[in-house]
Structure formats: structure tokens, C-alpha cells
Design goal:
6-stranded mixed sheet, mainly beta, 4-stranded antiparallel sheet, 113 residues
């Protein structure tokens, strides 16, 4: 299955963005979906994940600020990002957890004043 991320952009520190992850098929068929990010010159890391029964996990760095959810009506997995910090700047990807081979282009989030 292929998952495609969208919704990135430029936002000021303290602002919010909502990212969406759309699968090539039904979101219900893909299992655990996760958001990852890769900052410049750093490795890609897990940000948040959600299981088929809506259990969630978060990286310590985003706990309390980011919320991952399944949008059944739109067949997406979304990442609501609040209280954004400059260190959240990265290319954000969605993939399965554990990740499959397809990463797509990701979506760039830039947090800057």
C-alpha cells in the first residue's frame, strides 16, 4: 500500500498545521499508520502512530502538542500539530508501522518567524 502525505507549509512558532495521510486504498485495510519526520542532516524518526483500534503512540518531543487521528469520512490519517517550534521543521512522511518500502515525497513543514 502507498500512503501520501500532504498539508505542510510555513508557520510561525506557536502556530498550528494539520497534515493528512491518504492511502492508495481503504485506510481501514492498512493496519497501523504512523507519521515520521526527517529534519535537515538528521535521520528520519517516528513522530506518532495509530493502530486500527485507535491506540496511539507519540515521540516524547511532540507529546501533548501533536494529535494523530483517523478520519473515517475522508479515509485519511491526520496529524494535528499545535504549539509548533522551530525544531519541528522537517519533511513529514506517513507510512505503515513498521514502515513499508514506499516513502513518497513527504510534505515540508517549516516553523519560522
Amino acid at each position: 500500500v502507498q500512503l501520501q502525505a500532504s498539508g505542510g507549509g510555513l508557520v510561525q512558532p506557536g502556530g498550528s498545521l494539520r497534515l493528512s495521510c491518504a492511502p492508495s486504498g481503504s485506510i481501514f485495510s492498512v493496519g497501523t499508520v504512523a507519521w515520521y519526520r526527517q529534519a535537515p542532516a538528521k535521520q528520519r524518526v517516528l513522530v506518532a502512530g495509530i493502530t486500527v483500534d485507535n491506540s496511539t503512540i507519540y515521540a516524547d518531543s511532540v507529546q501533548g502538542r501533536f494529535t494523530i487521528s483517523r478520519d473515517n469520512a475522508n479515509n485519511t490519517v491526520d496529524l494535528q500539530m499545535n504549539s509548533l517550534k522551530p525544531e519541528d521543521t522537517a519533511v513529514y512522511y506517513c507510512n505503515l508501522y513498521p514502515p513499508g518500502p514506499y516513502w513518497g515525497q513527504g510534505t515540508l513543514v517549516t516553523v519560522s518567524s
